[in-house]
Each structure stands twice: as C-alpha cells, then as structure tokens.
Amino acid sequence: MIIVKKVIIRPWLKYFAFTSLLLYLLVLSGSLVSDLLRSNVTTAEVFINQALNTPNTLIRILPLACLLCSLVTLNGLIQSNELTAIFSLGFSREKVLYNILYVTAIVSFSHFLISSYLKPFSLRAKNKIIPNLDKKFSSLKKQGLITSKISNGKMWFKSNEYFFSYSTFNDRVNEISNTTIYHHTNDFKLKSLYLSPKTKSNSENKWESDSLTTVSNLNTNESNSVTNKKKSSLNILREGPKDFGQIEQDITTLNFIELLQYIKKLNHAGVSSIKYEVIILKIISGASSCILFTLLGTIILFSPNKRSFSLGKIIGICLSFTLCYWLVEGYLIELAITEKINTYIGVFGFQIFLSLSLLFYYQRNRSLR
Q1: How many angstroms separate the CA atoms of 25 and 10, rounded?
Q2: pLDDT (tens digit per residue) in 33-45
Q3: CA angle, 75 as apex, 73 and 77 as ends, to 5°?
C-alpha cells in the first residue's frame, strides 16, 4: 500500500511544484513589465518590491496550483491505466482522495502561515526599504485602522471615554505632538478638554506633558474651569506607545494575532470592526480554498465515464473556474464590508455553495465501480 501511495502522491507533488513555479513566473513577468514602465521608480526598487511581494503572489496561486495538479495527476493516472490498477488492488476512491487531501492539508497550513505572518512581515519590510511606497506603487493602498487624517493633518482616534487627535508620533523617543483629548460622558456630552503641545512617555510608560491645558465643567451649568500646568501627568490617556505605533501602521502589516487583538480593542471601544474581521476571515478562507480546489480537481475520480482530458482542456477549465471564483468572492466580500450581507456569508458563501455541490456529486456517484 505504501508503493500505491507513492504512485499517487509523488506525481501530485511534482505537478504541484511545477504548476506553482509556472504560475509564479507568469505573474512575476507581468508585474515586472508593468512596474518597469513606471517613471517614478528605480529598477532596484521594482525588483525589491517584486521580491517582497512574493508572499502575496503565493497566496493567489496556491489554490489554483492545487486544482491544476490534482486534475493533471489523476488525468495522467487514467491515461496510463495506473488508476485502474490501483482500484484492482482494493484501493478505493475514498483512499485515493484521502491521500491527496493529506498533502493538500500541508499546503493549506502553509497558505495560512504565509497570509498570517509572512505577508505582513514583507509589507513592513517594503515600507522600511522603499520610501513613499504607496505613492510609487499605486496598487499598494494602505488600509488604515480606525483613524482618519483630515485636511489639517491630524490623526483622530476613538477610545472608550474620549476622542483624541494628534499631529505626529515619534516612535524613537515615544513622543506625540499637538495632542487634544475630548473627554465625554456616557451619553457623549463633552465633559472636559485636554491640550498638550508635546507629550512624552516616561520609563513607567506614563504620559507626561510639557505644558498641559485643561478645560473642565463643560457639561455642567457652572463656569468653565481652565488650568495650565507645566510638567504634568496626562493620566487620562491610556493608550501606550505600542498602540500609537499600531494607529499609524497599515492594517495589512499586522499579523494574525496582532489583528485579532486590535479587533478586540475596537469591539471594546464600541467601534465597528467588520472591515477588519473580513481580513481575518479572508485568511482562513484562503487556506480552506486550497482544500476546496483540490476536491474540485479530484471530481474525475467519481465521474461515471472516468475519461481523460487533454491538457488544454484542463487548463481552460481551471482558469475559467478560478476567474469566476475570484469575481464572485470579491463581490460578496465587498457586500460584507459594506454590511449589506452577513460577514460570514460574504467571505464563505461561495465556498459553502461549492462544498455542498461537491458533496452532492460525491454522494451521488460514490457507489460507482
């Protein structure tokens, strides 16, 4: 039985490596030509960008490679009558399918690791190596967190009990400039106001202001109280230097765990986190699509006629299905982000439909001999 497993798994791995490399080179050549035509980037920056963009490319091509290599592997076994010989040894269709799925599970897990950790790491590296990255490569759009930079150049952030804005954050000395904190009541009435030109974090991770102006009693009938202090602690500001680093960071540079923690903060602050939950779910969806595409490729195991296909027909079927899959999935995800449909339906809707269709087909033809 070990020999039989090798007959199934070895060709699958060989075709998987070949198709992955071929698809990567096709995507790479197209991207290189497009980027080299840009007038605002150097040749070195183009090659660095493409090298660091490899994780993102792999995320797109791995599911398609699983579909292609599954079809080509089983098609080759049918043409050489090896599949018939395998069945004659008592090896069922389910066992053939399970052996392929074992290998695919490794690919799926690798896809998850690339999406969760390697891709954010490469994006952080690109932001450090290539200055003004998002301006030079227009396809790389930052997805901000719950901050927005308005015309006066300030960043705004919402916490549980207050809103605050600031101009810049210096991560080398942990200093924020032009900080304004709007402290409100539970019914969002302005309670007090804090203004600080420069605020710095001390050794105990507490914020200290060089010159703090406090305006209080804004929600009462009493006259407003204005105080000015030098070298005063700004205890109301609970976010630490690490939080400010995340605020100014592109959301796509956060790894899986960091993104989960940030979503938890958003929910705790009462801010909608659907857009970022979709990013998390897309990571899981991408990993599961490797298994789903493999199942689709093994459908010929349960085909009534089990005839082989030409290579051109296989490639045509794969590309047509993948294009349709990306279009439908992208449309549903946009609907989920805009909260027009449920988040899980938007991300997993087409996968659920395809899974049920495959399950029905397998159940209908599992008794074939």
Answers
A1: 23
A2: 888 887 777 788 8
A3: 70
Evaluate whether 9 touches 16 at the Cβ level (below 8 Å): no
d(CA 139, CA 142): 10
pTM: 0.71
Residue pair 129/48 in contact (Cβ under 8 Å)? The answer is yes
Name the residue among 238, 149, 247 with its Cα closest to residue 194: 238
Report the distance separating Cα 64 and Cα 19, nearest Å: 9
- Of the candidates 46, 201, 75, the one whose C-alpha atom is nearest the C-alpha of residue 137 is 46
Q: What is the DSSP letter of 342?
A: -
168: β partners = 177
Q: Which of 75, 63, 50 is nearest to 130 (CA)?
A: 50
DSSP string, 36-83: HT-SSS-HHHHHHHHHHTHHHHHHHHHHHHHHHHHHHHHHHHHHTTHH
Token couple for 292: 């789903």
3-state secondary structure of 210: strand
Task: Let me know the angle formed at the C-alpha of 258 by 250 and 154, rounded to the nearest 5 degrees.
Answer: 35
DSSP state of 346: H
Q: Rounded to whole angstroms, how far apart are CA atoms 233 and 209?
A: 6
Which of 356, 345, 326, 351 minimizes the C-alpha distance to 278?
345
Beta bridge mates, 193: 182, 215
Express each pLDDT in 80-91 by its tens digit.
Answer: 888 778 877 777
Q: Measured between alpha carbons, how far is 134 from 40 in angstroms, rounded to an integer?
A: 12
C-alpha of 219 from chain center: 43
